[in-house]
Amino acid sequence: MRIEDPKIVAVLPDLHVQLFRDASLAELTSLAIGGSTDLLRIRKHETIPGVMNLLDEHGLPHRFLGGGSNLLVGDGELPWVVLQLESPDPDVVLEGNFARVDAAADLGRTVTYCAKHDLGGMEGLIGVPGTVGGALRMNAGAYGMQIGSYVREVKLYRAATRRIEILSGEQISFEYRHTSFAPDDMMLAVKLELPSKPFKEILQGIRICNEKRRSSQPLGQKSAGCIFKNPPGASAGRMIDDLGLKGLSIGDARVSDRHANFFVNAGKAGARDMLALISSVRERVQSAFDLELELEVVIWNG
Ligand code: EPU
Question: Is the pTM here over 0.70, yes or no?
Answer without folding.
Answer: yes
